[in-house]
Fold each of these.
Amino acid sequence: MTMPLDPTRTALLVMDFQTGIVSNLADPDELVRRTAQVLRRARSAGVRIAYVRVAFGAQDYDAVSPLNKSFAVLAGSGRLADGSAEAAIIPELAPEPGDIVVTKTRVGAFSTTNLAKLLNPRTTDNLILAGVSTSGVVLSTVRDAADRDYRLYVLADCCADPNAEVHRVLTEQVFPRQTEVITAATLPGLLGR
């Protein structure tokens, strides 16, 4: 049984919900609607909100090694340039004043950001994850955050992957080894709301 969370020691990570990434999904409307609802509930409960986005400046593209299989292709294409429309967080999930917003240049939320410092591990024990894609930022962040000793919750229905079978295998078979896999409908009960 999942224990209730102290909202003041919890952060919701909203990861890679960007125009150029969400557009890779077949039908993102329900995902976005559910995630917007989760954001409202988390805010009203006093949960800290942190946005993670991927974007590149000219120096960032140059720093990507040709040995990096996925990011070398991305750097060569010039996609997700910082300041471009495709790198923007989708309007329906826009950050509010006081939210954390970090920009990364690799897959995981912690890998090229100061997110761990901003969350302050002395005051944040619990992370709730929502993101696109399940096999990208969510998987990498689950692994890294588990190694950092966070208590983790993945909102399975606020994550998506271009490959539905990969999403299913990750949320049903892989993630439960390191995280609680929950749904948007169960979150209010965890937060005492």
Amino acid sequence: MSAADSPVKAVLFDRDGTLVHDVPHNGDPDLVRPVDGAREAVALLRAHGIRVGVVTNQSGVARGLISDGDVRRVNRRIDDLIGPFDVWAVCPHGPDDGCHCRKPQPGLILWAAGRVCAAPADCVVIGDIGADTEAAERAGARGILVPNDRTRPQESAAAAHVAPDLLTALRALLTGPPTGRILANERPIEAAYGPGPASTGPRTAADDDGRPGPAQTPSATAPGRGVFRPGDATHRDGGAARGSVVGGRRGRSS
């Protein structure tokens, strides 16, 4: 199947908890650990001519916990291990900054879709929390939730489409747009994910960049390069932006 034949033109992944194991406000490339199947999933999409990108909230920048350079280095490591990705969209803002890019706002999704020349309706956003799928819905894209042990049960229950892992989600996508809330080969939510960790209390915006919090305007990172502020046309290092952006991301750790 070629990109022209596929109902999906681009897949945009959340970063922490979806492509790599979540390390709160990670600024160390050595701590990057891809989730099972991430590399194979991205390779499968590329083999079918489908563009791939990352949309991620990284509020640690606004909070002074990590720098733009830290984000670039971690993204470069992810690109090396899992990519290459066609576009990186990073929101460096905090929950109260009022930007339009921070998920669950749609800014990052819209910006990334534009960078890969795809209409939002032809894009799929894959993430592990409700803010990811909500951002997709607001942008007019399709969202798929791939839960992990930090996904809230109510997020799984509310998601339009749920898959147990990345490969299951993408194999289903390659056969056509999602048509049911449980994708192929998935067990019922209760059996697949359980009630969620009882010891984990409600997360706040300080813990989870994906919820709640005002919107933001996308700031981007070109793959392995840097964070762009809204309106930047080129990378801070002086290079052209392979993925200049106007957006933000979620992140329990971001």
Amino acid sequence: MLRLITTFALAGTLALAATSAAAAPTERSAERFAEEHFESIVLDHIEGDDPSNYHLTESRAISFGPLHEVMIAGQFCYSSDEMCTFVSSKEYVSAVLQDGEPRNVIGTYEQEPGLFAFSTFGYGDELAIALADVSGPLVHSARENAWFDYDGQTLTALTTDAKRFIDGDAITLEMYQKLLVETRSNDQGSAEDALTSGSGDVQTTKPTSYRMLGLALLAGLPLGYLLYRRRGKR
């Protein structure tokens, strides 16, 4: 039975991925995708959903701020013996302006080399407002949903979650690395404790089947957005 479930999950994953890849809009650069598709994506959300869910009104006066490349901590940032550097997440984000006011954030990401697709709409109005003052690389810590402006030495918190994570308004790169190392160490310790405490349980279901089902659901997300767009245009 589990083999049958896994087989159907894999087939669904491949079918949904193929359908989504064929129908979802893509462009050869982040700038091009933003120019061609950001406005229609936002308008689809305004017309097909409750705009207030995205900090928007029904106004169609939409514009966008500069496109920012999102940087993330490289693997060396999690080792106290290495120099911390930031690497591209391959996502680019822009503030969504409605009637000239920052309301939310929209993004595109490099789906495969040289091919950009829609990533997300909904990082929130707090980040949208903060993007206007970003002068250096935009750094994101996804686990904490923390956003920073980095000037080469210091990371300045742009959001409430970022201030909470570093317990302040700004932090040096050295101290930020120490915080990342400490956070990862605590996470690994918690995971080991959980495995130890559950070692007496008998596992009767292969985890692979759940991973396959999860992949099927993830593959369906782009298709769901396309169906949402079509619904909103009726």
Amino acid sequence: MSAHPAPAPAMTLPSRRRLPAVLAVGVSAALVVSWFGAADPTTWLLETVWVMVGLPLAILLRHRFPLSGLLCGLLAAHALVLIVGGHYTYAEVPAGDWVRDWLGWDRNPYDRFGHLVQGFVPAVLVRELLLRTSPLRGSRWLAPLTVCACLAFSAVFEMLEWLAAVTGGQAADAFLGTQGDVWDTQWDMFCALIGAVCALLLLSRVHDRSLICLSRERSSNSAPSQRR
């Protein structure tokens, strides 16, 4: 009696190899399209500069330090959040207006959502960097240090917003997106904290599996060169 064939994986190895390229093309196209008809060109530049820097950096380092499939997908999603916010400005994103009207809120919540993502996605990025470049694998300090790094990044971003407000005056209002909330800075950092904690609680095991897949892919790539 012949053995039953093993079930096919959800995503084949060639598909995983193509994923970063597909995501990079999609993000690049969205970035170019978002420039046309942007509500405020200065805000568009300030919000999307992270994409303009991060995407080329990931491409340049793709062979030396490839990222896991999960992280690639999350970074692409974060880039789209920034691109949409840059195109409309965070206080004027139509989807946020719809949620505001539906729930009867006083403000467009897209800015809050953006800062939630600002903690959620960097948490996976920091976790991956620490797992692959530090002795923290299996350490109880991994999660707390990851959250601290995300909070530090959020604080730096708020300082940049403060600098934009000082130098730009009212011209920076669209970038700040405070919508009249005097506690906006505190809310932004709190949302980043919640996002980071949720990412660790929800995605740690999924991230571990994605890292295993990445390790197997790198091993399969190095095997032919070793045979030669």
